[in-house]
Amino acid sequence: MSVQQEPQAGPVETTPAAAPAVRRIAAQAAFETRAILRNGEQLLVTIVLPVLVLVGLVQTSFLDLDTQGYSRVDFVTPGVLALAVMSTAFTSQAIATAFDRRNGVLRLMATTPLGRTGLLAGKVLGVLAVEVVQVIVVAAVAVALGWRPELGALPAVVGAALLGTAAFTALALLLAGTLRAEGVLAVANLVLVLLTVGGGVLLPAQQLAGPLAHAAVLLPSGALGEAMRGALLHGAVPPFSVVVLLAWTAALGAGAARLFRWH
Amino acid sequence: MRKEGNPQFGPIATHLTRLVHTQVTPCDDASRAAAYDCAVPLPDAPAIDTAMDPAQAATAGATTAGPAGAAASADHGFAVEVRGLVKRYGGRAVVDGLDLVARPGAVTAVLGPNGAGKTTTIECCEGLRSPDGGSVRVLGHDPVADARFLRPRVGVMLQDGGLPTGVRALELLRHVAAMYAAPRPVDELAERLGLHGFARTTVRRLSGGQRQRVALAAAVVGRPDVVFLDEPSAGMDPQSRRAVWDLVRELRADGVAIVLTTHLMDEAADLADHVHVVDHGRVIASGSVRELTEGGSSGPGTVRIEAAPGLDLTGLLTTLDPTPAPLSAGYPLGQGTPAQQVPSTQRSGDGWVAAEAEPGVYTLTGPVDPAALAAVTGWLADRGVLARSVTTGCRTLEDVFLDLTGRNLR
Predict the structure, then answer these.
(1) Would you call B126 and A34 a contact, using CB atoms and an 8 Å cutoff?
(2) Model confidence, pTM
(3) Which residues in chain A have Cβ-Cβ distances shorter than 8 Å to B164?
(4) Given an 8 Å threshold on Cβ–Cβ distance, is A35 in contact with B167?
(5) Which of A80, B9, B201, B336 sits between 20 and 30 A of B170, alpha carbons compared?
(6) What does the pLDDT profile of chain A (263 residues) look like in tens digits?
(7) Cβ contact (<8 Å) for A18 and B181?
(8) Which residues pair with B260 in a beta bridge?
(9) Is A16 within 8 Å of chain B by CB?
(10) Above 70 in pLDDT, residue B171?
């Protein structure tokens, strides 16, 4: 279930009637990407919500931010990028997969040469493709608001996004594979709101109230937020965040692999 | 064409009437010959449904002719071989020692009431479920362990469709086609199944029958050797069903092994070379449609006549049974039994039973043979009665099915 795996890896394709694995997975990734970008509700969560949060936090002052000496836009944008990753890798993917599972789409595609692994690889690549679109949109809005990031931070940002995607996609699959579709719809949106407000995504965990200040750094949301801020504000992803995200990926991935029901 | 509503939506019981109208299953060669013969002396009769269904003839031919293309054959010639399959859900055996085989170039129908274990069996064959016991071989391979080998060679149409709802019909078909090295041309297949009319409609907005056609197209687009169709014509209008049946026959001619589950007795009777009747997780009867409908029915056949209402059949029974036993009558015999008093039933000593099931529709049940049919048509001619239709038949597949699985709702 780990996303670090190269989807193309595996035994050499010996089946003459099937298209090559790379082509199958690329087709599935494109298919998933189109499905998300065409769906109004998904766009609302993945594109509109992060942009609204960005503009809201930068242009208004109803939240008294301790920006640690950075400009508001510099301080807020990394967290918004982390939120964008969460919304796609977790909320959007959990809902889409849950309804695909209920409608039998997962089973049908599993009987084609794509298979279950190809389906999973296609979904993960589709998530990454949507994230590219999100980053471009969010970054463009942020630049318009005065954001001037270090281009040298890009590899660290990509690394943080990949780690966060792995952890949150695993969580999405765990939910989608165990709960009913309507339940997933509710839980995935609720969890996104809770993590956004109190999960250390948008603002550093230590700025949260009481025990959350300590707990949020251990959450995947807090770790992803810290990783993004580390990459863009300090030029490096904190090792602790990497460890937390890898641990969540391993735990949630193992859970999803064990508990995911295709029917 | 008589207007009969949309039969595939109704419960099985409503098919019965329809089947009597359309499904003629010859009891044996002699009666079939008689059926054809009787069309000759009544040339001016407008519609005599005595012909055997051509599909039936084709089916019979296909069984004896053997597989057209043996591409799919395993060592023993079976494309699908299920032995002693057991599948339990929560300790309850849904499939309980089921045996089933399907040959290349043949249509194998799995019939059974809801909950009989049909879909579970099919899903074990598709590799979607792992058996708890017994063995499943598709093209000689294990569906789970050898999934990589089988996926390109097996086409699947799920009962619930399994289509993503947010994409357009043809876009979906092109996507599934992209999974195969040499798929069927999508446009040609879409043309065959009439998908172009809603090519750019999202799956969400398609009718049930339209979705089924898209799902069928997705099942066959990869040129499979084996196709599993779980209730392929559920929710389809008659035109769609025809298109689907034609495609299935074409696949059969190409040597594909087709396994389908269905509730529609006429679908099984028209399409299937081999029928497995499943109940309580086991196969309780198996054979060709002819074998099933003939088995245990050495007894009575039926002659069905459509003519003017209110005919007094007493004389006919005497004609059919030249050494008459005392007639027993469900109704006072005599001229002008009012049509409103149907059904009226009369019996002769030789086991002939006559009834006017509804005004103008008469059913004669008894030892149907060529002479009996000639006697019936002769009797009608003597009275100057022109029948709209004369049909012979023995038991329908539906009769067999209901006899085997019981007539009670469950």
Answers:
(1) no
(2) 0.73
(3) 35, 100, 103, 105
(4) yes
(5) B9
(6) 444 444 444 344 444 588 999 999 999 999 999 998 988 888 999 999 999 999 999 888 777 777 788 888 999 999 999 999 999 999 999 999 999 999 999 999 999 999 999 999 999 999 999 999 999 999 999 999 999 998 888 999 999 999 999 999 999 999 999 999 999 999 999 999 999 988 889 988 888 888 888 888 899 999 999 999 999 998 889 999 999 999 999 999 999 999 998 88
(7) yes
(8) B109, B229
(9) yes
(10) yes
Are B376 and B391 a contacting pair, CB within 8 Å? Answer: no
List the structure tokens of B347.
């019996």
Distance of CA B60 to the CA centre of its chain: 14
Pick the residue from chain B with its C-alpha nearest to A34: B167
Closest CA of chain A from B31, distance in Å: 46
The one-letter code for the residue type at B39 is A
- Beta bridge partner(s), residue B234: none
For residues A153 and A232, what is the distance between their CA atoms, to the nearest angstrom? 6
Confidence of residue B30 (pLDDT cuts 50, 70, 90): very low
* Cis peptide preceding A238, ω within 30 of 0: no
Distance from A17 to chain B by nearest Cα, in Å? 5
Tell me the torsion sign for CA atoms A208, A212, A216, A217: positive
Instruction: Give the right CATH number for B56-291 from 3.90.180.10, 3.40.50.150, 3.40.50.300, 3.40.1170.60.
Output: 3.40.50.300
User: CATH assignment of B296-394, given 3.40.50, 2.60.40, 3.30.70, 1.10.8?
Assistant: 3.30.70
3-state helix, strand, coil in chain B (%, to 5): 35, 25, 40
The SS3 call for residue A244 is: helix
Helix (H) or strand (E) holding B208: helix B208-220
- Establish how many alpha carbons lie within 13 A of residue B96's alpha carbon, considering only the half-sphere containing its beta carbon: 12
Rounded to whole angstroms, how far apart are CA atoms B211 and B162? 10
Q: Which of A27, A31, A111 faces B126 most closely, judged by CB atoms?
A: A111
For residue A29, the chain B residue with the least C-alpha distance is B175
B92-103 pLDDT, tens per residue?
A: 999 999 999 999
The torsion angles phi and psi of A20, rounded to 5 degrees, stand at -55, 150
Q: Which chain B residues touch A109 with a CB distance below 8 Å?
A: 162
Any A CB within 8 A of B353 CB: no
Boundaries of every domain in chain B = 56-291, 296-394
Q: Do A27 and B178 touch (CB under 8 A)?
A: yes
Q: Which residue has the tokens 């190269």?
A: A6
**How is the beta sheet containing B282-287 ordered, strand by strand?**
B154-157, B226-230, B257-262, B106-111, B274-279, B282-287
**Which amino acid appears at position B54 of this protein?**
P
